[in-house]
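Module 6 notes. Inverse folding takes a fixed backbone as the condition and produces residue identities as the prediction. Think of it as a translation problem where the source language is geometry and the target language is the twenty amino acids. Below is one complete input and output pair. Work through it position by position during the lab.
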């Protein structure tokens, strides 16, 4: 049966589209919007009751959470390519996927919000700098990993690289200077220049800043 991907490619759905294209898997794309209320339609809520994108349907299997979807696709369809080459590589791919979600994504999204997602009059340079300071430790961790190897796991581009890089695609979009971490910078450039990765490039839109500090906190927690 055909694979169906739900989600606007301006959202985290671009991560899954990248994986599907890397694996050369045909899929139907249903561009469910998150800014226009599309994720709250009853039809979509039956697929993902969290009212978030992306979601993926593969036969009878329904999945949400972009990084988990990509791990599934790599394991199921990526043998010999982006998939793990054994239990150890599988564990490492899962490790790096959880790492980027826990150590990088929220701070990077907060920095990006104050550099391009919020409208210009609602951006806060101090908040952006606070988030960037928090990212220095995980960036150093990634730099150390890549200093003597081109890819994160197994000596080749895998789902580990794709998942981490897809989250970090906000770096060039927000024009964040990462020259202090040259190995990471080179890896990021090589990964994002892969032909299948092109969907990250048009992710440009603005959202209103929540009116209260609590609203800002709720957006990123």
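Target side of the pair, the amino acids:
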């Amino acid at each position: 049966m055909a694979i169906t991907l739900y989600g606007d490619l301006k959202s985290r759905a671009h991560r899954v589209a990248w994986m599907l294209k890397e694996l050369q898997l045909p899929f139907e794309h249903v561009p469910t919007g998150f800014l226009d209320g599309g994720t709250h339609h009853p039809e979509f809520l039956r697929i993902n009751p969290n009212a978030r994108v992306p979601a993926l349907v593969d036969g009878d299997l329904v999945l949400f959470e972009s990084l988990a979807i990509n791990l599934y696709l790599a394991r199921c369809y990526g043998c010999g390519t982006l998939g793990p080459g054994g239990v150890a590589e599988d564990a490492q791919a899962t490790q790096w996927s959880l790492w980027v979600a826990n150590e990088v994504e929220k701070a990077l999204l907060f920095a990006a919000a104050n550099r391009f997602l919020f409208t210009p009059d609602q951006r806060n340079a101090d908040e952006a700098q606070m988030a960037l300071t928090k990212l220095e430790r995980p960036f150093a961790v990634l730099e150390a990993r890549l200093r003597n190897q081109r890819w994160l796991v197994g000596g080749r581009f895998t789902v580990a690289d794709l998942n981490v890089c897809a989250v970090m695609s906000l770096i060039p979009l927000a024009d964040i200077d990462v020259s202090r971490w040259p190995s990471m910078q080179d890896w990021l450039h090589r990964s994002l220049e892969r032909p299948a990765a092109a969907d990250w490039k048009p992710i440009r839109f603005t959202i209103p800043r929540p009116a209260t500090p609590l609203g800002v906190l709720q957006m990123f927690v």
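Reference fact for the lab report: The chain has two domains: 3-78, 87-197.
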